[in-house]
Amino acid sequence: MSNKAITSLSLAALAAMTLAAVQPSESLAESSANQARPAAQMKIVKPSKPPRTATLKTPSRPERPRPGRQSGPDTPSQMANLVVIPFYNNPHGLPEGFPEHSYCVKKPTGGTPVQIKFWIRNAGGSDSGSFQWTPSFPTAGAAPAQVVPNVPANGQLLITQGLPNGCYTPGFSGVCQFSISLDDHDEVEEWSEANTFESHCVSPAG
């Protein structure tokens, strides 16, 4: 082999070694360059709120009616109200208990009154319906109870009640006391339960 051929082979080997040495250096440089690049910044994105779903509100249930009277009126002005009204309005200015003062009926022939007269009035806004009333006399006991079928709203019923024997106290100017009780059995729904009324009649002196 000639010296020229050897020289050519030597140069080729040297070039190959040089190329092999350069390539790792370039790879290292490229790796260093990649490491030198700043890290990419990450943008934090908040998750979106889920869409609101429409909700239907159901109406509240009405209150159940309380036990008791269900069909009665709601306000006092609509309820029945039974009262006793004397028949007379004392036109002659006489003392209480004299005939035609309030309850006591004047006899056509004069003398001791033997009857009382009065109105049972419904001063309320509803019909009373059926109820019982009782006249009582302290010196003669109670008279039989009586039943009234109905007194309409703002209506009235005229009552004439006899006084029993023995009602008047003995002696000079006897007195007959009495009371009238309406709705004895509490059958009427009223805005006032003051249903007892009292008065008296007097006999003439002598």
| Fraction of residues in β-strands | 15-25%
Please state the average pLDDT score: 76
Number of strands: 8
Give the low-confidence spans: 24-29, 62-71
- Quaternary state reads single chain
Shape: elongated
Number of helical regions: 1
- The end-to-end distance, rounded to whole angstroms, is 191 Å
The description of the largest β-sheet is:
5 strands, antiparallel
Question: How many whole angstroms does the radius of gyration measure?
Answer: 58 Å
Order of helices and strands: HEEEEEEEE
Helix content: 10-25%
Structural class: alpha+beta
Brief summary:
By secondary structure, the protein is α+β, with helices and mostly antiparallel strands. 17% of the residues lie in helices and 23% in strands.
What would you note in describing this structure?
It is a single chain. By secondary structure, the chain is an alpha+beta fold. Helix content is 17%, strand content 23%. It is built from one helix and eight strands; from the N terminus they run αββββββββ. It has one helix at residues 3-36, and strands at residues 82-86, 115-122, 131-137, 141-142, 146-148, 156-162, 175-182, 196-202. A hairpin with a 3-residue loop joins β3 and β4 (141-142). The protein is elongated and about 95 Å long.
Reconstruct the topology from this structure.
Layout: H1 3-36, E1 82-86, E2 115-122, E3 131-137, E4 141-142, E5 146-148, E6 156-162, E7 175-182, E8 196-202
Antiparallel strand pairs: 1-2, 2-6, 3-4, 3-5, 3-7, 7-8
Provide tags for this entry.
206 residues, 5-stranded antiparallel β-sheet, 3-stranded antiparallel β-sheet, 1 helix, 23% strand, elongated
